[in-house]
Amino acid sequence: MQESGQSAALQDLDLRQAAIDSCFVELDEEYDILLREVCIRAAKSRISSNDTDDRRIIQAVQALDDIDRNSNELSERLLEWYGAYFPELELTGEPLARFVSTFGSRANVPESHPMFVKASMSMGSELSFADEELLRTFALNICSLYDTRRHIESYIVTAMGSLAPNLSDIAGALLGARLISMAGSLQKLASFPSSTVQVIGAHRALFKHLRGNTPPPKHGIIFNNVVIKNAPWWQRGKLARSFASKISLAARTDFYTGKRDPSIRESMDKKLNAIRAANPSPPKRESKPAGKPGSRGKSRNKKGGRR
Amino acid sequence: MQESGQSAALQDLDLRQAAIDSCFVELDEEYDILLREVCIRAAKSRISSNDTDDRRIIQAVQALDDIDRNSNELSERLLEWYGAYFPELELTGEPLARFVSTFGSRANVPESHPMFVKASMSMGSELSFADEELLRTFALNICSLYDTRRHIESYIVTAMGSLAPNLSDIAGALLGARLISMAGSLQKLASFPSSTVQVIGAHRALFKHLRGNTPPPKHGIIFNNVVIKNAPWWQRGKLARSFASKISLAARTDFYTGKRDPSIRESMDKKLNAIRAANPSPPKRESKPAGKPGSRGKSRNKKGGRR
Lengths: 307, 307
What we know:
With 307 residues, chain A is mainly α. Chain A has helices at 2-50, 53-83, 93-103, 116-121, 129-163, 165-171, 173-183, 186-191, 194-199, 203-211, 226-229, 233-256, 262-278, 298-302.
């Protein structure tokens, strides 16, 4: 009696345990499904929110570069192709594409056009109708690539105006967008020290310097701004340093406040003018620190090289 | 008296000589001007006549390649750019460009479209109006590049039909045009031995073979014709040889007679079928000539490699 009672109790326990276990299994399964769902949703929302303003600008900058490269390549082809029909035409790039898409054959150039004399005296061969049609289509394509390029450019200007007003103000919209693109995001650009901003785009020269005996690069892509490009060579290093520090400041203001702050621009102008006033003429050769890299220095500086 | 008479006579002679000399100088000058004029005209007419039919076709083939490369590059950019807005869209290349240029935002996909469900459930982010407009312009550009590609292709087919009817017949218009382009002109292609035609476009493999211990290439760009591309590996070498010889024959007929000769095609079909019938199954390993290049052979043949 006692034994059977004991075994019944044991059985009962076993059953309970089994029931509890099965409950947990169900819960586990439910939990697994839930977890999976949550993870998928999280991933999807991460994907959705991944498309931030700066990613859009980066895409646009890269599309701009792609279009530049491609429209140049196709223009060269058009130049070679159309050159057989009108070798005297001294146009390249967009003007050439516009000319070909407008007129096609030389015979269609009106008397009022500045190319009329050249067109009527040309030593080029005649265009057949099929050739003319083909060349016009081809040229039209190139024209629309140039149009798209302008469209993208104005898009970048607008987008940068709202994403990074200070950066656009200091560096210009396109250069600012390019800096964001090379840094990876506005956040990354804001986190860079200004000495890094100064040499973004001059990786090769920078690592060559770090490896060995070349002078450090004075400027990366910030060279493309008139502040540096139009400066005499002896001011460029100094200008680049303060220009980069102001860019850094602007990127940080943009990223952390998002508000436009005209004082950055003012202080930059003041600083740059001070540098210009303090270095009116090229330094004398003797006063230079004898240059580690031997004969390099003046001649390379002049080219704005080492980028 | 005699002296003065003599000196007068001498003077007379001198004067005559001077007159004759000056005549010659004038003649020389005239002749120089004439010669110059003739040379310039000759050069001009050479330039005019330089634009032959095959040069036009070569330009078109190169333009085709340029457009291929550029439209691919821009399509990749579009894929990456639009991927942020509609990652589920499994289109690339032209279909993608057509999709984006037609609809722009996912929200515009009509219910009848096969992509409707994916579009309405997409995890991509929303397109702003400015982005949509920009992406559509960009996609439209790519579409028109693809359209131009087709235009050029049909131009080549037409031009090849009148310049090289036999070559188009044997190799196809595009492959024929590409052969002319790589040879430099129809004349040069006609002057090549057929063994050269067989390996046009396989320069690297050919010179590797001539330098050392690799097997010779079996086919250059003629591989692109279905005759060879769709053949089993053990027939390819034999087929390529007779195919190249017929291409050579066709190019010569085109260049020297300019008339269409259907018998070339017939004899080619007969020859190729004979090769196919004579080699129904892959050769046994033992029967192969033990292969200079060691372990190469079967596995590389299969890939149609060595091009």
